[in-house]
TrEMBL record:
PANTHER family: NITRATE/NITRITE SENSOR PROTEIN NARX-RELATED, SIGNAL TRANSDUCTION HISTIDINE-PROTEIN KINASE_PHOSPHATASE UHPB. The lineage of its organism: Bacteria, Pseudomonadati, Pseudomonadota, Betaproteobacteria, Neisseriales. GO terms for molecular function: phosphorelay sensor kinase activity; protein dimerization activity. Pfam families: HATPase_c, HisKA_3, PAS_4. It comes from the Bacteria. Residues 196-390 form the Histidine kinase domain. It comes from Chitiniphilus eburneus. This is Histidine kinase domain-containing protein. Keywords: Kinase, Transferase, Two-component regulatory system.
Length: 390
């Protein structure tokens, strides 16, 4: 036995490789006669190699005659033009079927027409199964569509959220305005009630206490020499009565500073600040207008109450040695600042629950359409600043 030559061995290997390729290979000569018909084509066409070899392709696949694939095959053979026919543009170009053949499911395919070098010119028709790639493509398209849909949903949700946030903010704003109006109204009401009570205290209780005082003084004068015990009791009655009258005055002042309606805000403020400063031994810096200001009653009361609360807080918590008050106005605005050089206020304390002083000051100022600030003073201390339209 003679050994096959190297080229004979290679040719054999080539045929085996061609037969086992996982792509279809057909080679036709210039007359379109089949020269190569590999195993893959056999499997997918049902036509055996022996049956196909040497026969014109169009007799094996009559449906090709005059079609696009046939035209491009002619161009490849005559002019040497290669082509690629993808499944997406040219469905089921060759009558090939998926496996098992009996199911007759047309094969989705990509067809490459590759003119081979050499004369006469042959053409290789290479066929690949495009089903998997196309399935993947379809799945990717579906996923892209789902992604697009979920993106659109997300966008519409964000829009809805923004919209409801806007309406919520609007609602909160509305409610805040309503509450501020209500707070302002209640404060005005309470001021009016206090003023009424103060008037009644003055007119009724004041008259009764004064009448008693006059009578006791009369008794003291008229009864002449009294036993020491009686004289002492009478004197104690007078002293207690005077205390009662003082107390009534203090209560009345707290409810409705009489100075305010008689002398106006500047004088009242000066008196209030001096009294509290003396009580707490504070050095005092006052920047008040020289003349009285023409303010509405509500605005005067607000200025008075804010100053009163700021001073009370300074006395209770600040451990200050100096307090300064600024009251200034221009055509449009009034500015009130009460400053101490004490320990300073921290934010948690300022917002602590069940504390009403700072909240009350804020509400009073907001109800007059103004702005309110608590500021830290360097190096230490607290400044309460209120600005209100005149
Ligand atoms: N001038 C200040 N210096 C230091 N701390 C202050 C000053 N003013 C207020 N504070 C702190 O802020 C807190 C809140 O004050 P706010 O006036 O609201 O309430 P309060 O004085 O404790 O109680 P209320 O005024 O209701 O009787 C105080 O408890 C105190 O700790
Ligand atoms: Mg307070």
């Amino acid at each position: 036995m003679t050994q096959p030559t190297r080229s004979e061995g290679l040719a054999e290997l080539g045929w085996q490789a061609l037969a086992s390729l996982n792509v279809g290979v057909i080679v036709v000569d210039p007359d379109e006669r089949v020269r190569v018909w590999n195993g893959w084509i056999v499997a997918h066409s049902g036509i055996a190699e022996a049956e196909a070899l040497d026969r014109p392709l169009r007799t094996l696949f009559p449906s090709l005659e005059g079609g696009y694939l046939h035209e491009t095959l002619r161009a490849a053979l005559e002019l040497g033009h290669p082509s690629v026919l993808s499944h997406s543009l040219h469905e089921a170009q060759l009558p090939l079927y998926g496996l098992p053949l009996g199911a007759q499911v047309p094969l989705m395919q990509h067809v490459h027409l590759i003119p081979l070098p050499g004369t006469p010119r042959h053409c290789m028709i290479q066929v690949t199964d495009a089903s998997a790639a196309l399935k993947r493509e379809a799945m990717l398209k579906r996923k892209a569509r789902l992604l697009q849909e979920s993106l659109e949903l997300q966008h519409s949700l964000i829009n809805e959220l923004e919209h409801s946030q806007d309406s919520l903010e609007l609602l909160v704003q509305e409610r805040t305005t309503q509450l501020e109006e209500l707070a302002g109204h209640l404060q005005d009401l309470s001021e009016r009630e206090k003023a009424k009570l103060a008037r009644e205290l003055h007119d009724e209780l004041g008259a009764i206490l004064t009448a008693i005082r006059i009578d006791i003084s009369w008794l003291q004068r008229s009864l002449g020499e009294l036993p020491p015990m009686g004289a002492a009791k009478l004197q104690r009655m007078l002293t207690n009565l005077d205390r009662g009258i003082q107390l009534k005055r203090r209560i009345m002042e707290g409810m409705r500073p009489t100075l305010l309606s008689t002398f106006g805000i500047v004088v009242t403020l000066r008196e209030l600040v001096r009294e509290v400063a003396a009580l707490n031994q504070w050095a005092l810096t006052l920047h008040l207008p020289d003349d009285d200001l023409q303010l509405s009653e509500e605005l005067s009361i607000t200025v008075f109450r804010v100053t009163q609360e700021a001073l009370t807080n300074a006395a209770k918590y600040a451990e200050a040695t100096r307090v300064s008050i600024v009251l200034s106005v221009d055509e449009r605005e009034l500015l009130l600042a009460v400053e101490d050089n004490g320990v300073g206020i921290n934010e948690q304390d300022a917002q602590a629950p069940r504390r009403h002083g700072i909240l009350g000051m804020k509400h009073r100022v907001f109800a007059r359409g103004g702005s309110f600030e608590l500021q830290k003073v360097a190096p230490h201390g607290t400044r309460v600043v209120a600005r209100m339209p005149r």
